[in-house]
């Protein structure tokens, strides 16, 4: 199938090398098609010009306004000592506000001739403040009442598209380039099957491209956007549906659990009954494991909903069926923690081949990068001889040296921390593709799951096990109300006095010498002029101050693995009262006796991260308490974020809030394309219905025509979405 020649045309042929170079380097646009899909960010109307009153500081802006007056001043300076320096000051207005433009030196001549009072123009530049007034220094501008036909027509066309631009290329230059290539839009091949497009009353792709770049009315923009949203949702869902289809054609060894094996023995020794949710999800997993095609399932659940138990039962079922199971954890602390808790839960069932091991027992081994050579050799031997049915490890599991006897199931914990390549390398260790279970403790809104993990079937655990206590969360405004912080430390002392333990979490370790220079400062940091609080400093201050007399220890990622393990063991055994840590404790750490958590500089953490951290307390029968300490003022966005976390324990609700505040790019970035989010008009939360409908339509199309032979336009769109790098990325899944 020929690719569309007109849209594949390189921009340097059409626009000239200089403009094309800037577009490629700064905007990632290389072909005519790329430029046609670079949509306006918003539209200016002649009657409602940008409010000059609301201009953001330090941002690159484009405004449409009229010149009110222009004055040329001369002055003396080092370069022009005899008073020959020239400065042109132009005041522009849009009726609501005024803005000063300044031009210096030789740069004054052209604007002095052109920017006469009454002239209308588009101005672009960076907003700064001089003498307490907003100004643009040396802005680029484009006259709107010149006599060239095009400008008059654009001006009369009322809706002026404002494009995402850069300092090197102003919006109107992008607009002119778009006008140059717009005729090629007629040749755009439509990716939507005609029946789908007509059934939903969507305009054709050429018409949508014309309307988004050259709208005459707001209705044109709405038509174009709803059509282009469908394109994005549908093409992406087809890519994922084709992957699901391809996976379903692969062979896998069915792993059905035996009725009298290690799984049954394990269930018999559990001191509690599984929740309804755990039973339902386990059944979905067992049904998948019993098929002749690889399972691909995403298990997402609330913090503390018992995902590890569900995953362990799946691993035991695999062992019963003669296979081995591997669990991949993102950090050593977490791998050790999983290993310890799984061995505890299994008791003598984890002592296969050892004295005192139960009849159906298997061996559970740990494999991490920092293990001693002898322990490591033994673990590798246990895997290759099938002595070990279950292995838990970090990336160390992926190394070439690691060989399995018969790998049947891969469980990946905390999906978002693992590259697809890593998952793939582990899956490549099976004789046939192993079954895959991906776990995430960050609840993901359904639409994001459909967009990012659309190739995985999803199971959700949304009820907490019985006996779990509610967690009370409060924001502690340390700057406004210092006595609240003092009270927070009293609360920690009270919890310890009642025989419980506490965590104090800080954003930084505190031994980074070059940290302040390297760290990019956010505007909030700049305002505060202080680096985030650090574990080592805070632990020291607490031990000498408000928590004097309590047993305080520290835990962070740069400690030696043996030291980390020793600290965790002491904390688990109740020999430490307060653990001051970084986010290494964010996932999977399970200490039922820990009831309180104080998060310092809580505004420096994301919503999902705070929810994760909070899930470390209240894991036993005593209620949990989480205090979010912040110095951010009450009206700030950071405070609103913290209030949202304090207001609900529903992780799915929080992840929606998180997503609405950030942007999809953060969430979809890697998972979607390997580099940047390929969504331009689709908004994952807002366009929930479109995504769900597009998924159903895509599944039907792929089922009927897996190679898309009858839909050349869709193939072209897929090729554009999945260029080489992305194709590999999706292939690896």
Structure overview:
The chain is of the alpha/beta class and 733 residues long. The protein has 29 helices and 21 strands. The strands form four sheets. Strands 11-12-10-13-14-9-15 form a seven-stranded parallel β-sheet, sandwiched between helices. It is globular.
Give a topology summary.
Layout: H1 5-8, H2 11-15, H3 17-27, H4 32-36, E1 42-45, E2 60-75, E3 85-93, E4 98-104, H5 109-114, E5 120-130, E6 133-137, E7 140-143, H6 149-156, E8 159-162, H7 171-181, H8 194-199, H9 205-213, H10 218-249, H11 262-269, H12 276-289, E9 296-301, H13 307-320, E10 324-328, H14 332-346, E11 363-367, H15 373-384, E12 388-393, E13 407-413, H16 420-427, E14 435-440, H17 446-452, E15 457-461, E16 471-477, H18 482-497, E17 501-505, H19 515-518, H20 523-528, H21 535-544, E18 552-555, H22 561-572, E19 578-581, E20 594-599, H23 607-614, E21 624-630, H24 637-647, H25 651-661, H26 664-673, H27 688-704, H28 712-721, H29 724-732
Parallel strand pairs: 4-6, 9-14, 9-15, 10-12, 10-13, 11-12, 13-14, 16-21, 17-19, 17-20, 18-19, 20-21
Antiparallel strand pairs: 1-8, 2-3, 2-5, 3-4, 5-6, 5-7
Helix pairs in contact: 9-10, 10-27, 10-28, 11-13, 12-13, 17-27
